[in-house]
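Posting for a labmate who doesn't have an account.
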Amino acid sequence: MEKVIVEVFYSGNNYSAYIPILPGCVITGNTIEEIERYMKEAVPFHLVGQGESGGYVPDVFKSGYELEFKLSTETLPHAYSEIFTKAALSKVTGINERQLWHYAAGLK
């Protein structure tokens, strides 16, 4: 089973995600869990549309595949903010708390 990368970003109010090898398959959600659920629903729907319109369908989708969600650097602190404070995340990762704020803001 091949892995298909799903790029996940935090856009200030919610999360967005897309699959680089499947143009046009883009979703948004309020949580990472929503992103995962919505993308799992969107991919088959998108593939049917691509097939019916004669659009490009990458070979990986013609056999077994697994979605792998890759969170951008600025998305990680937001995604885990309900689980860890920035101070706790700093202790766990060894990254300075101020640096984590820079990552979260997309400055670094």
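Reply:
Got it, the structure tokens are right above this. DSSP finds four helices and four strands in the chain.
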